[in-house]
Amino acid sequence: MALLEVSQLDVRFALRQGEVKAIRDVSFTLERGERLGIVGESGAGKSVAAFSLLNLISKPGFIAGGSVRFEGQTLNTMSERGLRKIRGNRISMIFQDPMMTLNPVLSIGEQMVECLKAHRRISSRDARAIALDKLRQVQIPSPEKRLDQYPHELSGGMRQRIIIAIALLLDPDIIIADEPTTALDVTIQAEIMALLLDLCEQHNVGLILITHDLGVVSQVTQRMLVMYAGRVIEQGPTREIINDPQHPYTQGLINALPQMATPGEKLNQIRGSMPSLSNLPSGCAFHPRCDFIRRTDGQVRPACIEQVPGFVQAGNCQAACHMVAELQEDRRLKEESQ
């Protein structure tokens, strides 16, 4: 049994104009110590998926179907009291903006001690010693001094290291990192990601990394999910997807990387933009932007417009695409005819 099992997760928002399906039929697993990346454009549903794992969806959002199971326990139907024993304790979360996460009127030490006392019966002295040890682990200079400082006295990179230290305080089994380096410059981003990777490997902690940066995903994760319009459209080993993407959307994301463009030419881009979740296209949600909607004979694939694609196995990867299904079928027929 996997450490975390997400099955057919469905998250909706009840708005005046009707229900909006933010997450549709999302399924994946995470093994102990495994590193999983979730990528996609803004609005793809990455953060909503992450928040729903700990049932942190605020109203009018709600989990409409599916299940999230952690060590056999179903989190989405668990009581609030039961969830408090898991949130921050067994499963920790690193949010995008450390200034929004840290309390500006409490010192770093007070916040870390408070976190430990919320989950363990421990003295303030012992809690402070653990907090100091975690600050050393994340390579904070002069950790004794930092414990008595306030968030506004620290740099962005330092604050993010403290958030990672807080996430590690109770030795969790899983860390969910929601774009943990968004507000940092490139050199600090690299340092933070290297630190997070090293700590996860040292402590055998599972990592779910939500990001739009394929470069980071390729260096840090072992498996990845590609999301589009609230649905997983490709999943599999990270290296295989990066080297040989099957879905046209994944291909577009990789081709849009700066290093894929010819020097002096415009950067490649996927035409159009992410559709509104309240008005999704019929069939494959990506078809209005897809360059492969037409077959080699020039005719539009009717299935792309009419049917939501199911997953097709391609090597060790799965892709939800009618074109991939056609190619697989053509390959099968050729093999049978030989």
Quick description:
One of its GO terms (cellular component) is plasma membrane. It comes from Vreelandella nanhaiensis. This protein has 338 residues and is an alpha/beta fold.
End-to-end CA span: 41 Å
- Rg, Cα atoms, Å: 22 Å
Oligomer state equals single chain
By DSSP (H or I, 4+ residues per run), the number of helices equals: 13
Name the strands of the widest sheet in spatial order: 6-7-8-3-9-10-12-11
Q: How would the global form be characterised? A: globular
How much beta, percentage-wise? 15-25%
Low-confidence stretches: none
User: How many β-strands, per DSSP?
Assistant: 12
Given helix and strand content, the structural type is alpha/beta
Q: Sheet bearing the most strands, described?
A: 8 strands, mixed
Q: What is the helix content?
A: 25-40%
Tell me, rounded to a whole number, the average pLDDT. 90
Helix and strand succession?
Answer: EEEHEEHEHHHHHEHEHEEHHHEEH
Description:
The chain has a domain at 245-337. With 338 residues, the protein is α/β, with parallel strands linked by helices. It contains 13 helices and twelve strands. The two termini are 41 Å apart. Its EC number is 7.4.2.9.
